[in-house]
Fold this sequence. Notes:
7 strands, binds coenzyme A, seven-stranded mixed β-sheet, 3 helices, Aminopeptidase
Amino acid sequence: MLVELTLENIELLKGSFLLETRVKEDISNNPFAKYLVYLKSDKVIGYIYYSDIYERCEINQIEVTPEKRGLGIGSMLMEKLTSIVDKDITLEVRIDNEIAIKMYEKFGFNKKAIRKGYYNGTDGILMKRDNN
Ligand SMILES: CC(C)(COP(=O)(O)OP(=O)(O)OC[C@H]1O[C@@H](n2cnc3c(N)ncnc32)[C@H](O)[C@@H]1OP(=O)(O)O)[C@@H](O)C(=O)NCCC(=O)NCCS
């Protein structure tokens, strides 16, 4: 089940790999910060954290708990996001994160620019999905 986190349902994160305190701080202080979580048997096993800022959307992080990777949960989160966000979406990804790059390409993201040294000296790639 996919759920958007709010201050009302944030207790869903109790004991999860996504830290409740961090999410609480983000969504309390930043009106553009959004979290979609994937729940299985009341446990959060994946999330996508994005910023929905006027005419643009930026994916800040997507993560699935290590033991549940490769089972389609990342794709479900991406599908949900691309279906609810009716605008261009951008993100930065480490150049050596081949799995994530493949996933983003599967969802229509294209490589747009190299961000030299973006991740502590490792290059990043700016990717963009045009809304059409
Ligand atoms: C990236 C991540 C969220 C993907 O989640 P996931 O649930 O494993 O993804 P899915 O099973 O839905 O797979 C989505 C696509 O990713 C790619 N992929 C997934 N696992 C892969 C693997 N082992 N090798 C190559 N490509 C892979 C494929 O394109 C796959 O689509 P396909 O199954 O139709 O071929 C997950 O690997 C993760 O949490 N990684 C660590 C955090 C991270 O790097 N986040 C991205 C930061 S920018």
